[in-house]
Amino acid sequence: MTRVLRSAVKNNRTKENLSSKLSVCNNSKTIKKNSKKKVIANIEESRQDDIWNINSIRYNIFEYMDFEDFLEFNTVCKRWNNITNPNIHKNIKLQRCEKIKKIIHDKRLVKSAKTDAEVEMCIINNSKHAQYIKELNLSENLEPQRAIQLFETFKFIRKLTISGATMSQDQFIRMMIPLTQLQELNLSSVGIKKIVKKKFISEPSLLPQSLTKLALVHTKLYNNPELFIQTINSHTNLIEYKYISYDGANFLDPFFKNYPSLKIFEYGHQKTDYSQSLIKVFKSNAQLKTLKLSFSPSMLNIMVMMNFERQLFQNLQILLR
């Protein structure tokens, strides 16, 4: 009987030892698996952070590539297609070359109809790349609804240049509303009209907070389009401002009080003496680093004032033309 009991106890202990060893073995395997996963994860993370992450080096590579190179890389694989798309589709042309337009369009179509058809086709062909398009040059007179459609489609634009076009203030304001990421706005030889009949805007809009550079060069205003002026003057974060014109317009108001972000100020006006307004601007903005003035008789008054207050503008670079 004693032998039987001893044998039973021994068997129980053996089972317990085996169970314990199996448990330790399983735990060891689990630890090894977890450790292996962590090592693999660390290797993958290292690869992502190092040369395996193409994003970290592509900008250096792309700096030496031309447009044809981008087109070649774009066809390599899906990944390279996604990587090169932002460079290929950074900007667009609204119209094709004259040779192609002569083949495509009926000769009886007037110029405005051809332009509208070209812009419509541009929107259709490029809308799928809208997120990549960051720059746009507009030099065409567009139908208001087509212009609004254009900017509602390509709303990720950061740099917009409008030159040689004429439009109503309503159209301009509607064009600006979708551009919440706009950083630079250049208007050159642009005509802005105030319309009384069939107007579809009754209040000004606000330029986006992202806008840091604004240039108004020979902008022609018809019938005092006050909503346009209020919209232009709604900027709050400009670093660089340029105004060159022969017409009188009240675009200096935002700078009559301190405008902390403004560093570069360029101004040229040949017909009207704005010296007192400019002096007020300069006195309110001692943080200016660069001042560019187109020389005219009114500039003499400014130079005399600045000579008396040299201490205030001791860090200012003045360029006269």
Automatic annotation (TrEMBL):
Top-level lineage group: Eukaryota
InterPro entries: F-box-like_dom_sf, LRR_dom_sf
Cross-referenced Gene3D superfamilies: Ribonuclease Inhibitor (3.80.10.10)
SUPFAM superfamilies in the record: F-box domain (SSF81383), RNI-like (SSF52047)
Protein's UniProt name: F-box domain-containing protein
Organism: Conidiobolus coronatus (strain ATCC 28846 / CBS 209.66 / NRRL 28638)
Lineage of the species this protein comes from: Eukaryota, Fungi, Fungi incertae sedis, Zoopagomycota, Entomophthoromycotina
